[in-house]
Amino acid sequence: MLYPKRTKFRKYQKGRFKGCKADGTQLCFGKYGMKSCEAGRISYQAIEAARRAISREFRRNGQIWVRVFADIPITSKPTEVRMGKGKGNSTGWIARVVEGQILFEMDMVSLSDAQQAATLAAHKLCLSTKFVQWF
Predict the structure, then answer these.
(1) R_g of the chain, CA atoms, integer Å
(2) b/e burial code for range 110-119 (CB count within 10 A of at least 16 → b)
(3) How far separated are the first and last CA of the chain, in Å rounded?
(4) Which end of the chain is more exposed for a tag (fewer CB within 10 A), N or C?
(5) Could you tell me which InterPro entries the record lists for this protein (predicted)?
């Protein structure tokens, strides 16, 4: 699972998404990629599930680059706990994704295999994505 060894703060505020990102919107490593069509949050389990789906589709051939990293902790309070008494404990990790950000890159596979793998991975993510190709 992908999460940081340590962070500057134990708990973060939720935050809001504004605008588009300038960096991380172009393919850098592979010929094919998955780009987000909307802003949102992706959990570390969803990132890992999508990576495994792509890896299985390629049958461990080809190369995959994960361009997002879940580095923000998510907290939640236990069920049936009264209001107040501070923020809950950390329960997982998320990555903030903005519109147009590249999520995964793929190389050394055919176009049809890359498109099929991107479709399988898109079903694992809670954001709408599109397949992009380097020209």
Answers:
(1) 17
(2) eeebbbbbbe
(3) 33
(4) C
(5) Ribosomal_uL16, Ribosomal_uL16_bact-type, Ribosomal_uL16_CS, Ribosomal_uL16_dom, Ribosomal_uL16_sf
